[in-house]
Design brief:
Blueprint lengths: L9 E4 L10 E6 L10 H11 L7 E6 L4 H12 L4 E6 L8 H8 L3 E5 L1 H4 L5 H10 L3 E4 L6 H12 L7 E6 L3 H6 L8 E6 L6 H9 L7 E4 L12 H14 L8 H13 L8 E6 L6 H9 L1
Parallel strand pairs: 2-10, 3-4, 3-6, 4-5, 7-8, 7-10, 8-9
Antiparallel strand pairs: 1-2
Helix pairs in contact: 1-2, 1-6, 2-3, 9-10
The structure holds pyridoxal-5'-phosphate.
Pfam family, one: PALP
Protein name: Pyridoxal-phosphate dependent enzyme
Cofactor: pyridoxal 5'-phosphate
């Protein structure tokens, strides 16, 4: 059984950032949905897990050694008694990451594949092989970006009791952004904060997930700090201060970059006075263990 808390709280956020008083900032605390399957993870996996097609009794998915997606899915499958196979990029058998240790403790099957094989994860021929190996399995793509994920993500907007002018969120695969865009009206804008180097590529990914073109969204590419999981000591300090001053826990891979981007944009008068800005806290705090590992290595 999963003890999910929905709707997630939406809190007024009043930082002491320059010009923050000129706008109204809110945080959708999806990080509080569940201690493990937090943030966009539950939103994306909800329908995949609650509507397993008849005869399907296993899930298979893909990710790296620190993947928040595999971590959340592995936990959910253990709780729901669904066998789960994680196809992991790289061989961590000699020293599993903390995230992989959790998956092993939750009785997930880990299949380590090299980068070359991992690169084939979306090709029809490779997926056919996986289907032959696991005939009763639902195959969930990397990052949980199956079409039902978009429906789950869109429910964030259904829970709001006001209409934000801008919605800001971190972008990795683009599925969370793609789930929000169709739910906005013409006066609302979604702004994705790219957490990795992916100019044009990320826009194309988001467009490929949308069923029709929309114009009320964009992705900001100035805040990835050099690439996925790359971060400055300043960002780490920023996350710590955010927690000390506001009790909001973030990590430097996704949500730290989101809040930092919001601060920079507000300080640069990017939004009109009086704008209502909603930050989506997409959870993923287990990813902070990567930072700790990197820093102790
Ligand atoms: C905590 C967290 N926030 C944001 C994202 C980005 O979401 P998406 O991959 O849907 O763009 C991810 C990755 O899935 C994540 O783990």
């Amino acid at each position: 059984m999963l003890d999910i808390t929905l709707p997630s709280p939406c809190e007024r956020f009043t930082p002491d950032w320059k010009y923050a008083d000129d706008v109204d900032i809110y945080v959708k605390r999806d990080d509080l949905i569940h201690p493990v399957i937090s943030g966009n993870k539950w939103r994306k996996l909800k329908y995949a897990l609650s509507e397993l097609p008849d005869g399907m009794s296993r899930t298979v998915s893909f990710g790296g050694g620190y993947s928040n997606h595999l971590h959340a899915l592995g936990y959910a499958c253990q709780q729901l008694a669904i066998p789960f196979t994680a196809i992991v990029r790289g061989d961590y058998s000699a020293s599993p990451t903390p995230m992989l240790m959790d998956l092993l403790a939750w009785n997930c099957e880990l299949v380590y594949v090299n980068k070359l094989e991992y690169r084939q994860r979306e090709t029809p021929a490779y997926l056919k092989q996986i289907r032959m190996r696991y005939p009763n399995a639902v195959i969930i793509p990397e990052g949980g970006k199956q079409p039902s994920a978009l429906k789950g993500v869109g429910e964030i907007i259904d829970e709001l009791t006001f209409q934000p002018d801008y919605i800001l969120l971190p972008v990795g695969s683009g599925a969370t952004l793609a789930g929000l865009i169709p739910k906005l009206n013409a006066a609302q804008h979604a702004i994705g904060i790219a957490v990795l180097k992916g100019e044009n590529y990320l826009e194309t990914e988001v467009e490929s997930l949308l069923t029709k073109p929309h114009t009320n969204w964009r992705i900001e590419h100035k805040f990835h700090q050099g690439g996925y999981a790359k971060h400055s000591p300043e960002l780490v300090q920023f996350c710590q201060a955010l927690f000390q001053n506001h009790g909001i826990a973030t990590e430097p891979v996704y949500t730290g970059k989101l809040f930092y981007a919001a601060k920079t944009l507000i300080e640069n008068c990017y939004f009109q006075k009086g704008a209502k800005i909603l930050l989506i806290h997409t959870g993923g705090l287990q990813g902070a263990r990567k930072i700790k590992t990197d820093e102790t290595n």
